[in-house]
Write a structure and sequence with these properties.
- By secondary structure, the chain is mainly beta.
- It has a single domain, classed as CDGSH iron-sulfur domain, mitoNEET-type (Ribosomal Protein L9, domain 1).
- Helix content is 6%, strand content 23%.
- The strands form two sheets. It has a three-stranded antiparallel beta sheet, with no helix packed on it. Strands 3-5-6 form a three-stranded mixed beta sheet, with no helix packed on it.
- The radius of gyration is 14 Å and the shape is globular.
- It starts with 5 loop residues before the first strand and ends with a strand.
Length: 90
């Protein structure tokens, strides 16, 4: 049984991601990842797309909208693509 990918949205902080298979940057290059990673949401990290804790220094504040999804992961690849200075595609 394969491990499920999990993305946690931390209040006023990064996205915590576990069991991701691939992380692709805006150039299409696959980045090295660990079992658990933190992705920057504040835009100020010096190690983008990874969080370096800068959100605490700059007082980053987030608004989180929680929604329920009834869609199942139908065996799709667990991947995130990073757009240049933009959003993540999950």
């Amino acid at each position: 049984m394969s491990e499920k990918c999990c993305i946690d949205v931390f209040d006023d902080g990064p996205l915590g991601v576990e069991a991701l298979e691939t992380l692709t940057n805006s150039n299409g290059d696959e980045l090295d990842i660990k079992k658990r990673i933190a992705l920057c949401r504040c835009g100020a990290s010096q190690n983008k797309p990874f969080c370096d804790g800068t959100h605490k220094k700059i007082g980053f504040s987030s608004i989180i909208e929680k929604s329920e999804s009834d869609q199942e992961n139908n065996g799709g690849r667990r991947a995130i693509r990073v757009f240049m200075n933009g959003p993540y595609e999950v």
